[in-house]
Design goal:
alpha/beta; about 375 residues; globular; 2 domains; nine-stranded mixed β-sheet; 11 helices; Dihydrodipicolinate Reductase, domain 2
Amino acid sequence: MAQRKHRVGIVGLRGITSGAPEPPGPRAAWQGRKVGPPFDREIIISHAACIALMDNFEVAGYCDIVPELLDSFGETWGSTWPNAKPYDDYKKMLAEADLDILTVGTGDNRHADMVVDGANAGVKAVLCEKPLATTMEDANRMIAACEANDVPLSVGHTRAWDPIYHKIRDMIRDGEIGPLASIIAIQGGARAMMFRNGTHILHGVAFFADADPTHVSGTLEEGFDHWTEYKGDGGKKPENDPAASGLILFENGVRALYECNKKTIGGSTMHLIGSKGEIVFSLNDGYGTLKTETEDGAEVTQMIKPIGLVSSYQTMGYVAAYEELVALAEAGGKGRSVGSGQDARRVVQIMTGFLKSHQAGSALVEVPQ
């Protein structure tokens, strides 16, 4: 008997959902590196490209209101999924395509209705791009609809499925740096945009703090003084998405400083500081360093590597996310994803809290609920 394939429907056909595998050569050349095994493989980023890696998944439908994007998806992936049907109305796709998983990859401020409608339409699981939402009202109704229908909800904070993240959090939980007290998260570069890219860093802050945020104090970059809510175009233009600096307080006593600045060098770094040591790592390196002191005050530095040996980097990211969603759905939707909607809600609380604080003269305010 042929293996049943899990049927995926994609809404929103921009690069993150639809892009073809990218050859590593041009990127490596730009970085001044030679390419050799195992780094001479194609770089798999998009949802469609990751789904194509898995024999037990298939795209059954794809949807966008832009005809050119529908045509482009068909040209790129038609030979992979010849029976996949194009739609210009996601509600029609939900009604016709017999979906197991709905993938929502539209503009950041348009996720809510599609997630809610998908959960109510009977899909077994939802994978929504980050950030979960741009208002607490939207975030709350998305989570409520999924919980009411026992539909597991994951959000595309892809580092939630990265072994180094879990290795570091296990080290913190095991007390290797003492009780975590402070987090310093730095994000720089021209695309240091709070809603579009900062959501990854803020997810990491909450992931390692391992608690709900309670209060924030925030300041937005110049030019966003009148912002009370997200007013951008879906998060693609830096001029429509503010950088921000802020303090985040968590219910377990952890304090975090977030510095997001478009005028600084690119990159994202996390410092996790406890009473006995400090962990420092770049969000893109795949490894970190642990600094501790001996009893006589000598500093000891150790490299932190992921748990076990990852045979292929494609066992992380969206591949892991889809596999986890299926496992949760088959368990009745009662479990919680490592990239859950509840965790993504914390990020929306922090971001909307920064907006609230900025309007209050950067005062310390309770995060929105």
